[in-house]
């Protein structure tokens, strides 16, 4: 089901229902770009620590826009022995909802845009009909604005100004405006200019204070964007009715502004297993755009993530882990989906729920987020069921709640780091042995071939560039490390440190490492993330 | 005429022809955003100097993309006594043309995108079919790459490597690759991986050196993006023919990559009058995107601009200048076009050239760049003709080359600066008297009302915020300046300086002002801008 601003409100019930009844959810995002880094090599050092990798992604990827979000819900139907799916393809765009709302800027990367264009992506749908959204802070601010305005209307400001007309009053009118305001009380004032905003506020307050029950005062805007203050005589009951209508209208406006974030809130509150493929960037973008700016420290990010998505599963990581690793040659989503239909795997039995469009995997609508979410779910089901074949007796269907799945929970595939396969969201990360790695600094003229030459006596090496003047060099034989260190002692143009020494001197200058409880984040409180 | 990547090449002749025959050109650009500033007030101090205003626009606006360019050419037909127009609406997008080409990132501003969306702007056409472009540096780099590759092919590298197979050779093969390369000389090597790029280069060089005349060596890519080295036996003549074909193909690739910039080069080389409405940002973006990153200093920008567009005319500035100023109440493009059809003006006589779509001003296709360029041209014609009514005898048609137009040349409307109406591109800027202006610093808690209060004794004031803790305050009466200065002498929370003192202390810390020749830029050499 395709969801834009045009049908969002009427579809929200169906989305909530689908999430509610699901056994698990699959998600996928499409972005306006991937990496805003200065150069690819600086972004992708294969020896990065998880902290460094997170920091780079946070710094260079969060200014892109997540503008399409795919959600596919999977409900297992016992009677038919198959999953019934409902898939949703949301178009998302931060349309400013009023003159004072934030005017979001986002970056587009030509290569990403060009790639999506070549896949037939509909940018007009995003920009003309994308669903707006607010993060939690923006929502809270807007809520406050509404409340403040309501209080003003009710005349509950601090009483401090003595009106020259009536002797006293609750409104604070600066001297230079008093004349104007007092004249206005007996006029119906017309205005259309921004610079009068302060005066307008005074008029409101004064009128409401002078005629607390007999007048209803409101700003109205004509089709030509001319703005009036409309003053009408009302009795007490009518006034209360108008107030209530207005409050309801404001609540609806607020809901409209929060927009797509409500879908993410529903997914979050459901606490259901959320499956994605190579999903680290999807998770980061989703939190960044719909909850809060990403925290600086990796550990804080893990904490927030566990609050928003308490159970995650990454099919790329699953496919790269035993027993799948040896059976699967290519873990890209499209290839994985194909391989998981063939022996020893079985294509999962799925059907689509009534009223929902069925995707045909033969048609390959790749890179439509709803389709990618759908086949990600298929991959998960196929791999989960394969695990069931090891049971005695073997079982053809393994539920999303099975203990067999648990080892794959909350481990997100980590691209480009050579010896750390995943980011562990619910606990400390793996600490790979890097005893055979040297940290080398050298003149900025050096190229990879200079490093090969320098280490030519020590067998095969692997080079991971850090910047113009430094790199990690991995030796293939551990016993060569000391020899390399010794020979470098008198060198002038370059310098060698062991990885351990380098990390120690680096850590001294920066960080305080958080202590993890034995059971990961079990004792974290997430209540502040679910405050609505 | 709508021009995208699909019909660009076949339309280029028509564009060149239209520019060639035109009496003047009108242009307009649409951007992915207007201002990337931290806050509107910081960007729009009404007391900015032209240098400051330019610096702000350069810093906060150049990361947006000019993605639609309108060009409308106007040729006066003596026989019919009317202008014949040809209008072109170009869609522009920096599609990367190869794996190694620059991957441009640009910013989108939600409010601008939303506005264009509401006008029916076709983003799909931009992103799927936009015409690519290169600036001058990128073009030069690409040209060099082609030349370097050609030299490599011809074996004209520095001879320095002694091949173990044959005794000597012109190629530089690092020790660790020698074995591989020597094996490869007798193999047809197949590869598909990036990491082999260096080895591929060596294979090329070695093969070409060993078989300088008998072999043709080339990389070919299959539809599946697998890449081969194709080695074919050829005789001398055939080899030369293949080389020439290849060179032609490369020249065409280069032209395709330069893309839309060729249109701007043609406009520039024509030296014709270029008319725009409120065109400063159009000019800045056009130069930035298709020529070179904008220079830091305003004077250097003026110099570059005069090279690219030797004669500019801004219809918004013209309409804001006498004799038009008193007759025209609203200088926004749409309103101006309407007013210039009514008395005392006359709707200009125009027709559209054969084979070109005619815009109907009644349909108001505003914010399509081609349409905006068209009505900008109409405005210019109408105002120019009005000037003719003052001649004795009055003349109904005033040419774009008339002396009457000259006072409006190269003066670009300057938004938001209260007392400097335009940026003078071909000479020094106006220096407004700011004797009645005070520079005030104060605690960051202060608001506009605090400033009103502070100066309440000095009559009406105008406040131009600089930042949280400073502002310019214009007094209405010059004689109050000294009194205000005196009373501030013992103040602790705020400080007052005259504008002159403030500017002097500021200039001391920064700049060296360029000396202008009496006749502006007349002696500037632009040859480096027209090197193709």
Automatic annotation (TrEMBL), chains A, B:
Transmembrane intervals: none
Per its record, the protein catalyses: Exonucleolytic cleavage of poly(A) to 5'-AMP
Q: Which GO terms describe its molecular function?
A: metal ion binding; poly(A)-specific ribonuclease activity; RNA binding
Q: Which GO terms are recorded in the biological process aspect for this UniProt protein?
A: nuclear-transcribed mRNA poly(A) tail shortening; priRNA 3'-end processing; siRNA 3'-end processing
Give the keywords, sorted. Answer: Cytoplasm, Exonuclease, Hydrolase, Metal-binding, Nuclease, Nucleus, RNA-binding
Q: Which GO terms describe its cellular component?
A: cytoplasm; nucleus
Q: What class of enzyme is it?
A: hydrolase
Write down the EC number.
3.1.13.4
Compositionally skewed regions (Polar residues) per UniProt: 152-163
Q: Which InterPro entries match?
A: CAF1_poly(A)_ribonucleases (IPR051181), Nucleotide-bd_a/b_plait_sf (IPR012677), PARN_R3H (IPR034042), PolyA-riboNase_RNA-binding (IPR014789), R3H_dom_sf (IPR036867), RBD_domain_sf (IPR035979), RNase_CAF1 (IPR006941), RNaseH-like_sf (IPR012337)
Poly(A)-specific ribonuclease RNA-binding domain: residues covered: 427-504
Cofactor(s) for this protein? a divalent metal cation
CDD domains with a match to the protein in the record: R3H_PARN, RRM_PARN
Q: Where is this region: Disordered?
A: 149-168
Query: Could you confirm whether the keyword ATP-binding appears in this record?
Result: no
The family annotation for this protein states: Belongs to the CAF1 family.
Which PANTHER family would you find in this protein's record?
A: POLY A -SPECIFIC RIBONUCLEASE/TARGET OF EGR1, MEMBER 1, POLY(A)-SPECIFIC RIBONUCLEASE PARN
Q: What is this protein called?
A: Poly(A)-specific ribonuclease PARN
Organism, per UniProt?
Pygocentrus nattereri (Red-bellied piranha)
């Amino acid at each position: 089901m395709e969801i834009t601003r045009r049908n969002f409100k009427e579809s929200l019930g169906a989305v909530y229902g689908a999430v509610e009844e699901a056994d698990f959810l699959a998600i996928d995002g499409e972005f306006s770009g991937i990496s805003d880094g200065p150069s690819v090599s600086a972004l992708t050092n294969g020896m990065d620590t998880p902290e460094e990798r997170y920091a780079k992604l946070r710094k260079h990827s969060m200014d892109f826009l997540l503008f399409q979000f795919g959600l596919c819900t999977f409900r297992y139907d016992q009677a038919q022995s198959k999953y019934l799916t409902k898939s949703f393809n949301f178009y998302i765009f931060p349309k400013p909802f009023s003159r004072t709302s934030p005017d979001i800027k986002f970056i587009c990367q030509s290569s990403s845009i060009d790639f999506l264009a070549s896949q037939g992506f509909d940018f007009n749908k995003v920009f003309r009909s994308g669903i707006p959204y607010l993060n939690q802070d923006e929502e809270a601010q807007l809520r406050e604005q509404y409340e403040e305005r309501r209080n003003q209307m009710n005349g509950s400001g601090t009483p401090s100004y003595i009106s020259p007309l009536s002797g006293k009053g609750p409104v604070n009118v600066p001297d230079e405006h008093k004349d104007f305001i007092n004249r206005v009380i007996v006029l119906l004032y017309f205005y259309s200019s921004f610079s009068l905003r302060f005066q307008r506020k005074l008029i409101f307050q004064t009128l409401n204070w002078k005629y607390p029950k007999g007048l209803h005062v409101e700003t109205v805007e004509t089709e030509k964007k001319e703005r009036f203050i409309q003053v009408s005589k009302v009795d007490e009951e009518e006034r209360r009715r108008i107030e209530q209508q207005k409050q309801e209208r404001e609540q609806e406006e607020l809901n409209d502004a929060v927009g797509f974030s409500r879908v993410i809130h529903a997914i979050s509150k459901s606490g259901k297993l959320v499956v994605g493929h190579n999903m680290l960037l999807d998770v980061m973008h989703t939190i960044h755009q719909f909850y809060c700016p990403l925290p600086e420290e990796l550990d804080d990010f893990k904490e927030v993530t566990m609050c928003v998505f308490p159970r995650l599963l990454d099919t790329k990581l699953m496919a790269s882990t035993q027993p799948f690793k040896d059976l699967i040659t290519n873990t890209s989503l499209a290839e994985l989906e194909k391989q998981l239909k063939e022996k020893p795997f079985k294509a999962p039995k799925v059907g689509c729920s009534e009223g929902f469009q069925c995707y045909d995997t033969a048609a390959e609508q790749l890179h439509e987020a709803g389709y990618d979410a759908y086949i990600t779910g298929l991959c998960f089901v196929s791999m989960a069921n394969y695990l069931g074949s090891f049971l005695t007796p073997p079982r053809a269907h393994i539920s999303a709640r099975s203990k067999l799945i648990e080892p794959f929970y909350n481990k997100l595939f980590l691209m480009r780091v050579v010896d750390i396969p995943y980011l562990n969201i619910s606990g400390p990360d793996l600490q790979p042995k890097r005893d055979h790695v040297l940290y080398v600094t050298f003149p900025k003229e050096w190229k990879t071939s200079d490093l090969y030459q320098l280490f030519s006596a020590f067998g095969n090496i692997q080079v991971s560039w850090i910047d113009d003047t430094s790199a990690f060099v991995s030796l293939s034989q551990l016993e060569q490390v000391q020899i390399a260190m010794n020979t470098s002692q008198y060198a002038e143009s370059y310098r060698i440190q062991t990885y351990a020494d380098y990390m120690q001197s680096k850590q001294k200058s920066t960080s305080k490492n958080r202590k993890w409880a034995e059971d990961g984040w079990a004792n974290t409180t997430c209540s502040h993330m679910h405050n609505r």
